Amino acid sequence: MNTKLLFPENFIWGAATASYQIEGAWNEDGKGESIWDRFSHTPGKILNNDTGDVADDHYHRYREDVALMIKLGLKAYRFSISWPRILPMGIGRVNQPGIDFYSRLVDELLEAGIQPFTTLYHWDLPQVLFEAGGWPVRSTAEAFVEYTDVITRALGDRVKHWMTHNEPSVVANLGYLHGEHAPGIKGNIVSALKSAHHLLLSHGWAVPLIQQNSPGSEVGIVINANHTPSASASVPDRQTRLEQDAIWVRLYLEALAGRQYPAELTHFISKQGLLPEGTKYIQPGDMEDIATPIDFIGLNFYRRTVIRNTEVPEDQNLPQTLFPAPKNDENYTEIGWEVYPEGLLSVLGRLHFEYQIPKIYVTENGCSYSDAPGDDGLVRDEHRTRYLREHLRMAHQAIQIGIPLAGYFVWSLFDNFEWAYGYSQRFGIIWVDYETQERIIKDSGHWYSQVIKSNAVD
Ligand code: FCB
Fold first, then answer.
1. Angle at 199 between CA 197 and CA 201, to 5 degrees
2. DSSP β-ladder status, 439-441 and 115-121
3. How buried is 231 (Cβ within 10 angstroms: 0-12 exposed, 13-18 middle, 19+ buried)?
4. Which one from 33, 108, 167, 243 is the annotated catalytic residue?
5. Concatenated DSSP letters of 6-44
């Protein structure tokens, strides 16, 4: 038997969700339309044309859901606010029933001794703001500041952990370059980089406002970074790796750390003939604003992606030991992501050693497996338990070597609407029957609850 690995006292054990993925009630109580409402209502955008119209119906069942969190013994719950519930037109008129919903949720959590960790933007932009230009335009960053002010005034007395954005690189790249996520723009690199810049700028502008409206709170941002080695030591593979890393990760970390955007980005823009127009959106003072000091970085970690340059033939003479295994390998979850727990340690090390982040939370980590309840009503999802255990062992090791990791949030508390994959992927530690809205804590959830109770992983 393995020895138990004990976590520090006060380590924060949590689980995470996001508004559009669980709430439903997409047009109730004065909520405005979001880009995800519009995108999912457009045929052909989401697998099986699924929508978040009902999702987990959490908007109506939040009390029952907090009761499940109590059952699991969660110390913290990470959720996001739907911007168009608060400001249906993006700016201007405030929708009080939207504020009341989150206010009730926060009270319910605090009464249960569960700390709310609140994300301001987990992708559901008011549709009207997209129509006014979306993230590629600066006025969207200004609107985000107004929204931040309204919601942090309302909840700032009780919420003490705030995250401005969730995975801005996914917003910029999947939303405005590849078009797989709302608003579905198949753009060019400049529209993605402009979006990234305005997301970061809105973050930097929001930080002092949150501190003012929520005294004594911690403020951070959530970055996604996976383990991304190059497939070989060949120059094209390594170059591709550097470029991908610049677009997906370094752009954000460098800017937040007060450095410049990676040089590879200007190179991209010029390669596509988009200079000098392509960098005009960066105004004097912007980089300083983006680097406004924060209290923590949230890391979302899921997998390893081995990067190779597919445009050139592989050089057979070079070591190629890092090729990914075939898709049906045990090491892949059902969404096709490679399981690689060691990568979590390596990315945490990168944040600590290269960027001296003062405090880190793993704000998402989890896996997609579709295990359903058996005849006895139990959900025996041992692959998920194994995934979580192995990642937690790496988290423990990170703490041992001095990385300031202060908490861990499983993605996700519930099975839910997985963006372009609709309901086909189940990440929850709680099973959700989408027909009846019945919830069942999976075996992994019971296991996690023991981890929390003992403050240790086996
Ligand atoms: C992350 C998202 C989260 C969820 C997981 C599986 O990129 O932040 O909403 O979809 O992936």
1. 65
2. unpaired
3. buried
4. 167
5. EPPTT-EEEEE--HHHH---TT-TTPPPBHHHHHHTSTT
Q: Is 167 a catalytic residue?
A: yes
Q: Kindly give the number of the ligand 1 atom that is closest to the alpha carbon of 335.
A: 6
Residues across the chain: 458
Pocket of ligand 1 (CB under 6 A): 18, 21, 166-167, 170, 224, 300, 364, 411, 418-419, 427
CA 169 – CA 178 distance, rounded (Å): 12
User: Which residues, including other chains, have CB under 8 Å from residue 336's CB and lie 6 or more apart?
Assistant: 327
Domains and CATH numbers, the chain: 5-457 (3.20.20.80)
Cβ atoms of 361 and 10 within 8 Å: the answer is: no
Q: Which phi-psi region, left, alpha or beta, contains residue 334 (left: φ > 0; alpha: ψ -120 to 50)?
A: alpha
**314 flagged as catalytic:** no
**Quick one: 180 exposed, middle or buried, by C-beta within 10 A (0-12, 13-18, 19+)?**
middle
User: Taking the chain (458 residues) in consecutive chunks of 10 residues, what is each chunk's mean pLDDT?
Assistant: 87 99 98 99 98 99 99 99 99 98 99 99 99 98 99 99 98 96 93 96 99 98 97 93 95 97 87 78 97 98 93 45 52 95 98 97 98 98 98 98 99 98 98 98 98 97
Does residue 183 sit in helix, strand or coil?
Answer: coil
At which residue do the structure tokens 């190629």 appear?
A: 320
pTM over 0.85: yes
